[in-house]
UniProtKB/TrEMBL annotation:
Stretch forming the signal peptide: 1-27
Origin species: Aquamicrobium aerolatum DSM 21857
Name listed for the protein in its UniProt record: Membrane-bound lysozyme-inhibitor of c-type lysozyme
Keywords: Signal
Superkingdom to which the source organism belongs: Bacteria
């Protein structure tokens, strides 16, 4: 058991903390239309394709499959994640735990705790 941190440990800790804060900020920011009761979440969900591949650069990609008010995301490593809408009334933000996905137009922002956020394009 190591009690004295190595020099790089503080950078990793800061990155993890910043990633967590980014996820929390994304989850806490409300959709203006949902807050005012305007707009139709089903129309926004329908704007997200049922099945789409997004290029994240550097040979990375994600596949997003829409399923009701949730999505299934599969990354280039073959890992799959079922992400519910967050908050439940949301139609473009999904996530739980250390995972978050924001889909707007032809772009998807994919955030995974401990990794650099990726902006991916359809």
């Amino acid at each position: 058991m190591r009690l004295i941190p190595r020099p790089g440990d503080t950078a990793i800790l800061r990155l993890c903390m910043l990633s967590s804060l980014a996820f929390l900020a994304t989850a806490c920011v409300g959709d203006q239309q949902a807050q005012t009761g305007q707009g139709d979440a089903s129309q926004t969900i329908a704007a997200i394709p049922r099945h789409a591949t997004y290029d994240c650069g550097d040979g990375d990609w994600i596949v997003i499959e829409r399923a009701g008010n949730a999505v299934r995301l599969t990354d280039a490593d073959g890992e799959s994640y079922d992400l519910p809408a967050s908050p439940p009334s949301q139609a473009s933000r999904f996530g739980e735990g250390g995972l978050a996905l924001v889909v707007e137009g032809g772009e998807a922002l994919w955030m995974k705790a401990g990794k650099q956020p990726a902006t991916c394009r359809r």
